[in-house]
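It is worth pausing here to work through a concrete case rather than discussing structure prediction in the abstract. The textbook approach is simple: state the sequence, then state the predicted structure, then interpret. We follow exactly that order.
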Amino acid sequence: MFSRSELDAAHAVIQRHLTPSAQIAWPLLSRRCGAEVVVKHENHLPTGAFKVRGGLVLADALPPATPGLISATRGNHGQSLAFAGSRVGVPVTIVVPRGNSPEKNAAMMAHGATLIEHGADFEEAREDAFRRAAQQALTFVPSFAPALVRGVATYALELFTAHPDLDTVYVPIGLGSGVCGTILVRDLLGLSTAVVGVQSAGADCYARSFAAGALVAGNKAETKADGIAVRQPDPEALRIILRGAERIVTVPDEAIAAAIQAYWTDTHNLVEGAGAAPLAALRQEADRMRGRKVGLIASGGNIDLALFRDWVG
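Step two, the predicted structure:
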């Protein structure tokens, strides 16, 4: 999907706008998990999530006089595009499902997005965004696209450069840009690190497809972790995952809630459900990973206060 020179060019774009996110080995987390744990803190970025990297790289490559961007999201992708669009002067419209997080909606609008509510879930919102793109001559930006993958892959470049000796890295899977970027960077750098994808047991479309070796349709997305509440795999993302992932682990929402609480207790970091899922997976596989050096992608920290209280109160 990209070469090393293209990855380095993407990282140069990121460095013009962002400070590299921290990667910290937390002793209490390591003690809790029985492994040496290094956390990549994408929750520290300006939009509170890793996706801003993809938005910035995509926006940097837009043709002159682009009339506007449109996409669908539950939050982090929309904040990314709004943040990046404001940097290059391109209007951004975001479609969210009805009942979406009020705090994430407010954050997207604060970054300059025009917000539209449509549909019962992400898939229906995405279909509406695609229709509006055609009607209004806007550029539709899917959650998984080459420029976005190249941008978010820069977090893996930072992590692997600092810790090339990681045995395993656990990565949450929404539509797949993060896990695919991690796989592709691992391969470009010639490392042997195992990449493990993580999904909620209530939204396990990639896990089912990975087990089958082919895309499995007709899935559900029943999880409070809205960043990974996806019910249909992206075919290109699945191809990369099938080729490069070690396995996909599913975790129940109860384990994700416990991981959110563990992050708060052990590191005083607020991590959203999708970002906490890798820690939940590591704890689930504690016996298997004992004594190893493990990376966790804390992909974001955008969790509503009410949901945080509901999950860990």
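Step three, interpretation. DSSP finds 14 helices and ten strands in the chain. The first strand starts at residue 23 and ends at 25.
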